[in-house]
Design brief:
By secondary structure, the protein is an all-alpha fold. It contains nine helices and no strands. It is 75% helix and 0% strand.
């Protein structure tokens, strides 16, 4: 089912290799962190689905607003994900949690569950590099965002912290 979602997301993003590569990297890091942190199978499944779809609203936001900032993605993404996940036969409870994670993945002040934490960490690992952030910015993210031992280790090693 995750592979079907992965391919559906690649199809949805057709022609946008940069963003396809973004969600593929976020998925890879999220899966690695989740498995290293020994989450249960349902949590892993939810994390993988959320990692693949976390930016699903980006093209819609660009068309509707001429902007795809994080808050607009949080606003518009969940409904698009609900439709896609429904078409692919995802259970409603998994779909609901994925929609919640999409609606909050750029909100860092109330991270309440391990799936949310892992998604944010994986997205940060990719964004620090893709956005060309300074070592100081990476260090600040390391101290303020990263909580899992695996995520912290990856951040330290990637950015030489």
């Amino acid at each position: 089912m995750i592979n079907k979602l992965h391919l559906a997301m690649i199809e949805l993003y057709r022609g946008d290799a940069k963003r396809i590569q973004h969600f593929c990297k976020v998925h890879s890091y999220a899966k690695l962190i989740a498995e290293t942190e020994n989450v249960d199978k349902k949590c892993l499944f939810t994390i993988e689905a959320a990692a693949l779809t976390h930016d699903i609203g980006i093209h819609f936001c660009e068309e509707k607003y001429g902007n795809c900032n994080g808050k607009l993605q949080e606003k518009e993404g969940p409904a698009i994900a609900e439709k896609l996940l429904g078409e692919l036969g995802f259970d409603q409870d998994v779909s609901g949690r994925v929609q919640y994670l999409i609606a909050h993945h750029h909100t860092y002040d109330n991270i309440d569950e391990i799936d949310y934490q892992i998604l944010v960490e994986a997205d940060f690992l990719v964004n620090i590099m893709e956005d060309g952030l300074s070592k100081d910015a990476a260090l600040k993210a390391y101290h303020n965002i990263f909580k899992t031992p695996c995520g912290k280790r990856m951040c330290r090693e990637m950015f030489n912290i």
